[in-house]
## 1
Amino acid sequence: MELELKPDFEQARRRWDAFWRSGEQERPILQITVPRPGRKGVQRPYPARPDRDPGPQIEQLLAWAAEYEYLAEAVPCYTLEFGPEHFATFLGAEMYYHPEPHDTGWALPFVRDWDDAPIELKRDSFYWERTLEFIRAFRARCDGSLLVCAPVLSAGLDVLAAIRGPQELLTDLMDRPQKVQRALADVRRVYGEVIPVLAEALGWTERGSANWQSMYCSGRTSIIQCDFSCMIGRGMFREFALPCLEDEASYYDAVTYHLDGPQAAHHLEALCAMPGIDVIQYVPVPSETREHVESVYEGALALGKGIIRGADAALARRMWAEHPGRRLVFSLGMGSRREAEELMDSF
């Protein structure tokens, strides 16, 4: 496969495939983007707006993507989603868009009683049909330039919180756990219905796939998560969240887990015990100490997982010196191609 914005894509593909196959690497994966001279500062069109014509959004995307060089293992791609809770719309949720700071779309809770709200894929809904329409439109213009990626499919407890409300779901976990488990089973069934359709629409068999961190795989890859886990303890996480995460991971060849913040970090050990997870992506908060952030990364490595993190050249070199051969992915935005090439040559 050729990508106009990534002339050396086949070389990057081989490195990514070797990364997923084996924990022993000759150098870390480097996702390096460099702004092209004369760039105009076009903004990435996120989220995609289903209530608007996809045409101008596609042109904006192509203009944004063309403003960068994608070096080493950086792959130009775009996560086509209507908002972080896109998956909830497949179950019947409506979206609203908050104007600040990024016009982000969120799902409106609609479940008042689990007995009165059957969880099923709404194939005739505006959002499901629009998702497939947008995939066709974006691929028609973007194939050959960049990869169009699936929306983030936040399922499990996250999607129940989206359609029920976080506070109400917490109460249900205590007072109506059987109903929550039944709802989770239904979500898992819907997830299994969605994946084959998206795989065909996005051409995963022929083109491979990338996740929203631009991590490429010749097969199927995704980032799974349970942000709701920051509100529950270890026991409840193992009982309600882990079975869903294990089920989600089974649909992919390469899996990254999005661990969101220090309040979720106490689930790291349970997550690293999951054989279906390959890489941990940790998201620290501004108030977090550097020591705690580093302890999470070191903990994931000690428990046998790879990590992806933002870094500068010095941090990337130091971590590789401390963990040679391990699954390390560094995302780096650099000011010049020369600076990037110096880093690549240093490993």
## 2
Amino acid sequence: MSKRKICVVTGTRAEYGLLSLLMKSIKDDSNLELVIIATGSHLSPEFGLTYKEIENDGFQINKKIEMVLSADTPSAIAKSTGLGMIGFADALSDLKPDVMIVLGDRYELLAASFAAVTARIPITHIHGGETTEGAFDESIRHSITKMSYWHFAAAEEYKKRIVQLGENPERVFNVGGLGVDLIKNSRLLSKEKLTKKTGINFLSKNLLVTYHPVTLENQSSKDNMQSLLDVLIEMNDVNLIFTMPNADSDGRAIFNMIENFVSNYPDRAIAFTSMGHLNYLSTLQFVDGVVGNSSSGLTEAPTFKIGTVNIGDRQKGRLKAKSVIDCDSSISSIMNGINYLYSPKFQKILSSIKNPYGQGSATEKIMEILINKPLPTEMKKNFYDL
């Protein structure tokens, strides 16, 4: 039996971290052949040239597709998507994979998926069926769902939503979240090793801060970020560990605001363009909570029994553990959220928190299907009516 050629597409550091364990499993399996396409911010010096992290982990990148323009306006994002489609059309024609894997909801993956559909390459979509009402990622995610053949959802509710979109339940699988899987299978660093490697100077209080642009809100993401920074300025006894935003509209403005903040408060703030998934997960062990609007605060932080202050609507609609404190983008609401995170009442509930994204083993479930399920002989899909 010839090996199945599995193409994994990755466009950002965060999604690569989630995919890395699955990629290693594919690489090591005698039934499968791994090919990798790196694109998006992986190839941008501004975002840390994170394709090097992929190579440092022992993977060979088969194709690199440049598509991120040097601006972060809506027009630039649309043009980047168009450039991506051109690049993916050529790459998939050369690689000729049996299956293409994409994870999530970013515009880089929309470009890859459209190119795969026209090339009649079956798409495997991970983390579909989720909702993020504050970002155009919502529309992109559901669009990729309709282009995909196999679906690996992170929870039963998300599986049901994929079926609601007309996908056949026989091709939709609840495998759990890959973030939980990665945590369970990583040898996390000690505080001493982490400090030596990253330069993080942990204090008695520590928060990890990640704020991404909210692409569908009328209020400026810059205004929302300023409200968050105004709150953090007042918390002079808390060490702040910032991770930089994605390459989205307004991303560079937020990037500059964080850089200015860190330069003004170097004794209690540090920023990372890319931490790498091992450093990031290791840091979660030693902080009191996550602040911002990253999905990691919902999908990974609960496994560490720490709180999340979730700002605004970017994650609205996603499943949330009781460790997630929702607030709006006003100064008073953010301040109240962080104060509640540190309150004895809230701290008391953390030990009993359960992560709604499962307990691990997503990689094994996905691998079983990639190896054993018959590939489609044709790409026709009937709309599954409820």
## 3
Amino acid sequence: MIKTAFLTGTRAEYGIFYPLLNKLSGLKSFHLQIIATGMHLSPEFGLTYKEIENDGFVINKKVEMLLSSDSDTGTIKSLAIGLMGFAEALDELKPDLLILLGDRYETFACATAAYIKKIPIIHIHGGETTEGAFDEALRHSITKMSYLHFTSTEKYKKRVIQLGEHPDRVFNVGALGLDNVCNTHFLSKTELEKALNFTFGEKNIIVTFHPSTLETNTASKQFTELLKAIDSYKDLKIIFTKPNADASGRIISKLIDQYVKHNQNKCISVSSLGRVRFLSALHYIDAVVGNSSSGIIEAPSFKIPTINIGDRQKGRVQSKSVINVSPAFSEISKALDLSFSNKFRKICRNALNPYGNGETTDKIIKILKNEFKKTINLKKSFYDTYDK
């Protein structure tokens, strides 16, 4: 039995992990271990660790690391606290492998601890680029500490190899989150409206906007421009989801609260929709607006437009259903007009999602079974592509 540890620190990350966790929990050859950290343990962000437990999973360790701060310094201190906590958690759990997803600083701290403790790291969603966030550098750093790599597109697979990882340990499996899209039983519109205390209108959007962490003091201005744009549509109904625990995230949360307070007839805000409610909402809305990766990866499978604002997701492989704009009122307004047009909605209906078809879980499990029959040698040689 392979002791397989997962780290999850955010609602979105857990939602992506869910199909893999669910499948592995039913296999005798894997012993599941879950480490919850970051926003999962914070009342401010909805104590979303409860969602993990409500789904029937056992959380083996909780690592408190999130300071009540909204600054770069606070993020650095949280990272340092997390590093100590992960060292203790991994020492206690002694996993045979650690599965990490993406690029957040919580993930980077856990990867650092696992690498030094000589625990093989399995990295999902490596090789991607997000030029507006420091996640970019953290993601590539996690790649270099990882033993196996599961990328979401062929382009990202090539980039991981370009970073010196041997092709035999890099696998393009598609985006894990699309397994949820293909296998989740969506709530009916009536059920979702009741669950959210929200009534859909003629035009509906989800807004998720995070700070661009490689920029300084831009969150308030950028989000205000977005609010001005959506406020000009009097018949628009809006579901706001709160930002992550990043520097300047609380500024955006405050602006959301103020806007909702004065526009209760047209919008709501939630700390976390959760996996089922979020995917159900995508099934009924008309567009995704903001700068979340869900607009790039999951939304195209619902054949709806995404308005991607600013540089946070810059560099990611995109479907033709994604409209990229700068964080300015005029551009966002034009993009909203385009997203509601019949011509662009036809483009969305015919657009392919470059992140796969929802069969990622089975691919990952098959590869894990094969790879862990072999001898694991963590002394990796740098694979130079320039002389191949």
